[in-house]
Amino acid sequence: QQYLQSQNYGQKIEYIEACPSTQLVAHVEAQNGAPDGMVIIANEQTAGKGRLSRPWSSAAGKGIWMSVITRPKLTPQQAPQMTLVAAVAIVRAIEDLTNLTPTIKWPNDILVKGRKLTGILTELQADPDRVKAIILGIGMNVNQELEDFPEEIRDIATSLYIEQGQSVKRAELTAKVLNHLETYVSLYVEKGFAPIKLLWESYADSIGKRVKISTLQDSYEATARGISEDGRLEVVLDDGTVRGIYSADIHIL
Ligand code: BTN
């Protein structure tokens, strides 16, 4: 907490030695009225959750496994963009503490040299017209060595330690993420998505490139152009039409 400069974010922290998933704890806390910016941090998760019900490897003591309960004044339609806001905040925090230049892979992966460093899982508690809470689940690989990852993800995952050969203080990085997160969430709520969109696009790895888009229904190639006001990835198809992608796996060609 000595590194925190935020007003709300991280001012209340629930630290847990081990739990299945901080997302589950955060949902319960949010339902019980947890304040804006309350953070649940675990040293170890035994059943970490990724997007699309994938598991998230969360080795003890090696990474940042946290869920941030936020209560921004947004409509449920504006909630998905919070993932992009969080991605920008995390990249800024990594830049503050390392010499690495991370990129963002739409919608929510933070990569270094093409390998995954951080994932974000955004979950919503809302009425039809009003957001009650947005729970930002952030998983950051910090001090793992390659052997700390399960074998099947060793060639797609990385950590700050692996990339720079030097460990990073988790408390300091956590505080940096929370400081930036509070700043960028207020920027989004006050000024809308335009400033976030510019920042996000400056870190995105796919803009201007040929990509392959795979959804459950089909798979096709196009050129990535940018993101739209509602957080969709805009691609230009070969016949010149522009399409906004809401959910898909993107692969740069
Ligand atoms: C993804 O890229 O699929 C998202 C990964 C999100 C992982 C974090 S770790 C803290 C929080 N608790 C979880 O169970 N998941 C998120």
From TrEMBL:
<protein>
    <recommendedName>
        <fullName>Bifunctional ligase/repressor BirA</fullName>
        <ecNumber>6.3.4.15</ecNumber>
    </recommendedName>
</protein>
<keyword id="KW-0238">DNA-binding</keyword>
<comment type="function">
    <text>Acts both as a biotin--[acetyl-CoA-carboxylase] ligase and a repressor.</text>
</comment>
<feature type="domain" description="BPL/LPL catalytic">
    <location>
        <begin position="1"/>
        <end position="189"/>
    </location>
</feature>
<keyword id="KW-0436">Ligase</keyword>
<feature type="binding site">
    <location>
        <position position="116"/>
    </location>
    <ligand>
        <name>biotin</name>
    </ligand>
</feature>
<keyword id="KW-0804">Transcription</keyword>
<comment type="similarity">
    <text>Belongs to the biotin--protein ligase family.</text>
</comment>
<keyword id="KW-0805">Transcription regulation</keyword>
<keyword id="KW-0678">Repressor</keyword>
<keyword id="KW-0067">ATP-binding</keyword>
<keyword id="KW-0547">Nucleotide-binding</keyword>
<feature type="binding site">
    <location>
        <position position="45"/>
    </location>
    <ligand>
        <name>biotin</name>
    </ligand>
</feature>
<keyword id="KW-0092">Biotin</keyword>
<dbReference type="GO" id="GO:0004077">
    <property type="term" value="F:biotin--[biotin carboxyl-carrier protein] ligase activity"/>
</dbReference>
